[in-house]
Design a protein that fits this description.
Layout lengths: L13 H9 L7 H9 L2 H11 L13 H31 L5 H19 L7 H7 L3 H9 L1 H12 L4 H9 L3 H11 L4 H9 L7 H15 L16 H9 L2 H16 L6 H9 L1
Length: about 280
């Protein structure tokens, strides 16, 4: 059974919808970010976890959202907010779908980071990462509609069908079509709509093509999408350039993991990390 109309697609609660739009404003101020993070408990936890992590190296515990935003900076605040909004909105349904949840979110993060790297300054601040991170928005919509039916998609994919063909058979639409409709319904910037609709295309939308290459690079660097396992990692000239930018393979993996954990509010402060290491 297909999703019948745009009205069948999930909606963001009002505060989260306003936050998503504000996060794509290149002129957003520190106070704007503070308002975004304090309006949603999940975002507050994520901001404080990120600011108090070992990677942020605070000299004392940070307890206020304003201090947290200043500590992690605008770019990281945007990235964490978008990631946290999506995780808090969809994580429960993903858990029921047989998608490997951790692998899926890391796939979204690495695609966002690599899209940002490939685009450079050609898109406004925050849009390139979000376009990459939200490219699989349609998959989240399908899972939200019925996670148990998405298990059938995974079964068909494991039996050799393409994911797109399996989605079309089970839901009547692919995650590409559904993602375009959902991004449009949410009023997201055109670049994000294009990424959701065209990230499997080798031609067409400029943003879609960049996200296509970002996905392919992520695949080569060992990041699957939670449905299909990645190829064997082979470092070639293309991936060597990417790894240099991210301070090597360990640097890239550490950054992806940091964002994924920050979005879930799962980062520990340095003292807790040290205690865990001694245990």
């Amino acid at each position: 059974m297909a999703l019948r109309s745009s009205n069948d697609l999930p909606i963001l609660p009002g505060a989260r919808a306003r936050a998503m739009l504000l996060l794509h404003n290149p002129d957003a101020t520190v106070q704007d970010f503070v308002q975004v993070f304090t309006a949603d408990p999940a975002l507050t936890v994520s901001a404080l976890a990120a600011a108090n992590s070992a990677a942020s190296a605070p000299v004392r515990p940070i307890a206020s959202v304003r201090e947290a935003v200043v500590r992690i900076g605008a770019q990281q605040a945007r990235h964490i907010a978008v990631s946290s909004l999506m995780r808090s909105q969809f994580d429960a349904r993903l858990q029921e779908s047989w998608i490997e949840v951790g692998a899926f979110w890391e796939h979204c993060v690495v695609t966002g980071l690599l899209t940002e790297y490939l685009v450079g300054r050609d898109l406004p601040a925050g849009v390139s990462f979000t376009a990459g991170f939200l490219h699989d928005l349609g998959r989240l919509a399908l899972v939200s509609e019925n996670p148990f039916r998405y298990r059938r998609v995974i079964d068909l994919a494991k039996a050799g069908a393409s994911v797109a063909a399996a989605e079309r058979r089970i839901f009547g639409a692919t995650h590409l079509v559904t993602g375009e409709r959902l991004a449009t319904r949410w009023g997201l910037p055109p670049a994000i709509v294009e990424a959701a609709a065209h990230h499997h295309d080798r031609e067409g939308s400029a943003v879609g093509l960049v996200v296509y290459h970002a996905r392919r690079l992520g695949w080569k660097l060992g990041y699957g999408d939670g449905v299909t396992a990645p190829e064997t990692v082979e470092v070639d000239e293309e991936t060597e350039g990417v790894l240099r930018h991210f301070d090597g393979e360990d640097g890239l993996h550490a950054r992806v993991r940091w964002y994924a954990l920050a979005a879930g509010g799962e980062l520990q402060p340095p003292a807790a990390q040290a205690a865990g290491g001694r245990g």
